[in-house]
Amino acid sequence: DIPSEVVAEIVAAGKFHATDDYAVLAEADAVAICVPTPLGKAKDPDISYIVAAVDALAKYVHAGMLVVLESTTYPGTTEEILWPKVVQNGYTVGEDFFLAFSPERVDPGNKRYNTRNTPKVVGGATPACLEVASALYATAVDTIVPVSSTAVAEMTKILENTFRAVNIGLLNELAIICYRLGIDVWEVIGAASTKPFGFMPFYPGPGLGGHCIPIDPLYLTWKARGAGIQTRFIELADTVNSDMPHYVVSRIVDALNDEGKPVKNARFLILGVAYKGDINDVRESPALTIIQELEKRGGRVVYNDPHVAQLRTLSGEVLESATLSEDLLGWADCVLVHTAHSA
């Protein structure tokens, strides 16, 4: 959430240096591991990036170093994966080496909350590790939230994102029900939001996107299965959310049929392809599935997004953002407003 111009200023001032040379870690006092944690083909955790990062770091670990994992992952990762790898040189965690987990809480596009004013959860492998990690983050974050262990910190982030995924799934299902019953779901949400207690508004959409919300709950379901627990509620929400792009396409098909227009050779304009408003991130965006489904049915798809100049579709095709104009709107048989950009 740091503007590009600020990053440029920091680089120009010599305060930030990017490198792919792991040898510089030998001189580092603190290391934060912030790597992707995607899903495998079977929707199980892929922590290979964490393992690769820790393997590369291990040879440069030295006395007094602090290592913090920030990547969202299942509870137990820090102690089960990181701890054994970084102590193999004989250092004792909490005495001459420090290990912690502190999840990132970045909300892309949020102009109210940033790194500085968003409370930072920190869990240490030992009380001394917690103290050292908290001291580091206190230099950049206003409020530190210490917890009793790395597993508690890991579960905290998983809860935050699972909470969103499950509630969005509920509202997506409610939106379908309201449509069938002829009720305005947005009016319902607005009215329910006037209750000053016991209700928090969530909103339906074409599905979940981004690197966190569609993925992180499934890290928890995987971990739970290993403990003999079936997470039926979380998995149902994942099914509902994953089905939403297909539901959107089905509504489009129905609308065209009502006008006597087949999907094959129909012209579609998608307004916005980012997974949320006012950002350029298309990871896991429902727009990708919607475009794929329309093209499979023979539709001709064009998109406009002021934040995404190019889009690589699921089929590998690269599309260019079209200039929005009256002529383009007139060309389209169907216009789908996918992303709520402010401009």
Fold blueprint:
Elements: H1 4-12, E1 30-33, H2 48-58, E2 66-69, H3 77-86, E3 98-101, E4 120-124, H4 127-137, E5 144-147, H5 150-181, H6 185-192, H7 216-226, H8 232-258, E6 267-271, H9 286-296, E7 300-304, E8 310-312, E9 318-320, H10 326-331, E10 334-337
Parallel strand pairs: 1-2, 2-3, 4-5, 6-7, 6-10
Antiparallel strand pairs: 3-4, 8-9
Helix pairs in contact: 2-3, 5-7, 5-8, 8-9
- Give the name of the CATH superfamily of the domain at 4-156: NAD(P)-binding Rossmann-like Domain
Question: Which spans have pLDDT < 50 for at least 5 consecutive residues?
Answer: none
Largest sheet geometry? 5 strands, mixed
Number of helical stretches of at least 4 residues = 10
Strand order of the largest sheet: 1-2-3-4-5
Radius of gyration: 23 Å
CATH class term of the domain at 4-156:
Alpha Beta
N-C termini distance = 19 Å
What fraction of residues sit in β-strands?
Answer: 5-15%
CATH architecture name of the domain at 4-156: 3-Layer(aba) Sandwich
The residue fraction in helices comes out at 25-40%
Per CATH, what is the topology of the domain at 4-156? Rossmann fold
Order of helices and strands: HEHEHEEHEHHHHEHEEEHE
* Anisotropy-based shape: globular
Tell me the total number of β-strands: 10
Structural class: alpha/beta
Average pLDDT? 95
